[in-house]
């Protein structure tokens, strides 16, 4: 068993950090850089194809050292070993969190590799055109039906890796993602598809999520109608549905054929599941070799996280910087800003990974926490965000931490033979903007000529801290390392805050109440004990539906 933690705020290191924060409030990042031109060398780390620059964070060596001591005091070493040792770190659900095991080599995780091999067989049959629809056609379109972790991870990574060359000699199917329960996505997707050549992946850890089951049922009915009466339900299920879940019984009950089932396990949290067969859309994009490269990159980051001293450890430093910003500088929002459009879905993926994991207010001990935990996280492709919410970052009233992501290498001749020069110029333009924005946010108007006097409405205060992450290139391996880095960062923060990042009880209550609301919507007058607002809204809707 993992021992209980002491109360965080009575730690002497916590008090020392609070005192440092008071002094820090009188300083400006422009002064940090003016007095310390070597900051970058001391506040940047590199490994596994990633460079992390923390030098634009409002922090000194002394603050960093105190944060590292805080990590020790919170027994980070012990907890890291508990995670990687398979202890029950998910205390409210009584299970370990072994997503890292999904990227272990075959000799250490045979069960995992058995499923990977089964997945490989299916992926190759689809990519080679051997998987046939019920009328004998090759598959041209694959629809991933899932939500939360069964959607955001595969969507984000498959989209990010689309520019990688397809597996040699194979043709990728077009990928589609249907997640929202209102049917708006699935209806739009189905309008454009041919039922004879469409395959559905029903992805759900629990296989009980209503959003996914309703979308899957709509798809099943669409196939039945589209393929005509000649086709029986069993053939349709065998040729057009693959199920991916930790619940084989529920998959079978729904109708997924045993040979079409891919499994993962209870000890993989939904938002940590893209490394399992839930990642099938990624494998359909880069082939199984590419998918295994992504696992290898993540494994490299697991090793980094487990073995590097905290001050040289990228996920640990990312976590500690956030703790400093949130708990000591009072910065309760973070913008994720990729300057490479292929990472367009990364903010949404991180919103779930971080906010569903660490959006908690009760400690492992069961006591309420007395300090802030996960901040509000949102984001957008950086160049587009510049024309949307950057005004608030530059001249608004909120302190906001930013996370910039750039890729060093981008286009290759093989990918874009004709336009490669122009596209390279666009890549440089985007990276230049990324550097410009982080510089301006940090230094404010002192990034410009100090002699120029500006009217007040043109002034930039600056002092908004940021971290910049540079990816060597957006390959499966580096993406794997990046995502594992974020997973470990979330875990480290949870250890500092003494919370469980692996449950999501807050989401569960909403599901229960929604079931009751269906009855209210059907007949508002039969509802009892409902609040006045909900009842009036239900009546309003019912009246307009007549
Ligand atoms: O949002 C709650 C949640 O349980 C997530 O943690 C999970 O990723 C999502 O629902 C989908 O769950 P499932 O994969 O079981 O359908």
TrEMBL record:
UniProt entry keywords in alphabetical sequence: Cytoplasm, Gluconeogenesis, Glycolysis, Isomerase
Catalytic activity, reaction form: alpha-D-glucose 6-phosphate = beta-D-fructose 6-phosphate
Alphabetical list of InterPro entries matching this protein: G6P_Isomerase, G6P_Isomerase_C, Phosphoglucose_isomerase_CS, SIS_dom_sf, SIS_PGI_1, SIS_PGI_2
UniProt cross-references to Pfam families, sorted A to Z: PGI (PF00342)
The keyword Cytoplasm is assigned to this record: yes
Class of this enzyme: isomerase
Active site, UniProt feature: 356, 387, 511
Subcellular location: Cytoplasm
EC number(s) given by UniProt: 5.3.1.9
Pathway(s) this gene product operates in, as recorded in its UniProt entry: Carbohydrate biosynthesis; gluconeogenesis; Carbohydrate degradation; glycolysis; D-glyceraldehyde 3-phosphate and glycerone phosphate from D-glucose: step 2/4
MF terms in GO: isomerase activity
Function: Catalyzes the reversible isomerization of glucose-6-phosphate to fructose-6-phosphate.
NCBIfam families attached to this UniProt entry: PRK00179.1
Similarity section: Belongs to the GPI family.
Annotated HAMAP family: G6P_isomerase
Protein name as annotated: Glucose-6-phosphate isomerase
Protein source organism: Alcanivorax jadensis T9
Highest classification ranks of the organism: Bacteria, Pseudomonadati, Pseudomonadota, Gammaproteobacteria, Oceanospirillales
């Amino acid at each position: 068993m993992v021992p209980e933690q002491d109360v965080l705020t009575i730690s002497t290191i916590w008090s020392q950090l609070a005192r440092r924060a008071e002094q820090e409030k009188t300083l400006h990042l422009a002064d940090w850089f003016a007095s310390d031109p070597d900051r970058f060398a001391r506040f940047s780390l590199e490994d596994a194809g990633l460079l992390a620059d923390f030098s634009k964070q409002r922090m000194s060596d002394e603050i960093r050292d105190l944060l590292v001591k805080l990590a020790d005091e919170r027994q980070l070493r012990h907890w890291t070993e508990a995670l990687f040792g398979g202890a029950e770190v998910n205390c409210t659900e009584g299970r370990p969190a072994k997503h890292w095991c999904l990227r272990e080599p075959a000799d250490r995780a045979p069960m995992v590799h058995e499923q990977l091999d089964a997945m490989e067989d299916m992926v190759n049959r689809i990519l080679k055109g051997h998987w046939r629809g019920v009328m004998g056609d090759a598959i041209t379109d694959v629809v991933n039906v899932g939500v939360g972790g069964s959607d955001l991870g595969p969507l984000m990574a498959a989209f990010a890796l689309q520019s990688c060359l397809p597996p040699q000699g194979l043709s990728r199917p077009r990928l589609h993602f249907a997640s929202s329960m209102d049917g708006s996505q699935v209806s739009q997707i189905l309008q454009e598809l041919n039922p004879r050549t469409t395959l559905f992946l029903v992805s759900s850890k629990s296989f009980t999520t209503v959003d996914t089951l309703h979308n899957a049922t709509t798809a099943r009915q669409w196939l039945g109608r589209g393929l005509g009466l000649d086709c029986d339900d069993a053939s349709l299920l065998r040729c057009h549905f693959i199920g991916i879940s930790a619940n084989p019984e529920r998959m079978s009950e729904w109708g997924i054929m045993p040979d079409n089932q891919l499994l993962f396990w209870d000890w993989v949290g939904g938002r940590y599941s893209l490394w399992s067969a839930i990642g099938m859309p990624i494998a359909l994009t880069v082939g199984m070799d590419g998918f295994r490269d992504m696992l290898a990159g993540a494994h490299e980051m697991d090793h980094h996280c487990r073995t590097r001293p905290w001050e040289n450890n990228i996920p640990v430093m990312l976590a500690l910087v956030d703790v400093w910003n949130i708990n000591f500088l009072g910065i309760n929002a973070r913008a994720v800003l990729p300057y490479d459009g292929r990472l367009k879905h990364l903010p949404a993926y991180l919103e779930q990974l971080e906010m569903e994991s660490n959006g908690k207010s009760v400690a492992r001990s069961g006591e309420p926490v007395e300090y802030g935990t996960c901040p509000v996280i949102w984001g957008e492709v950086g160049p587009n965000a510049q024309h949307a919410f950057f005004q608030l970052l530059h001249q608004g009233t909120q302190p906001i931490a930013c996370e910039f992501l750039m890729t060093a290498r981008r286009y290759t001749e093989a990918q874009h033979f004709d336009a490669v020069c122009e596209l390279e110029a666009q890549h440089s333009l985007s990276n230049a903007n990324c550097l410009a924005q982080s510089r301006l946010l940090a230094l404010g108007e002192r990034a410009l000529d100090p002699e120029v006097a500006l009217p007040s409405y043109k002034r930039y205060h600056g002092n908004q801290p940021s971290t910049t992450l540079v990816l060597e290139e957006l390959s499966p391996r580096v993406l794997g390392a990046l995502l594992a880095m974020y997973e470990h960062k979330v875990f480290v923060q949870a250890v500092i805050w003494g919370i469980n990042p692996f449950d999501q009880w807050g989401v569960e209550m909403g599901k229960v109440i929604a079931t009751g609301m269906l009855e209210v919507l059907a007949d508002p007058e039969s509802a009892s004990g409902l609040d006045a607002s909900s009842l009036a809204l239900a009546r309003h809707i019912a009246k307009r539906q007549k």
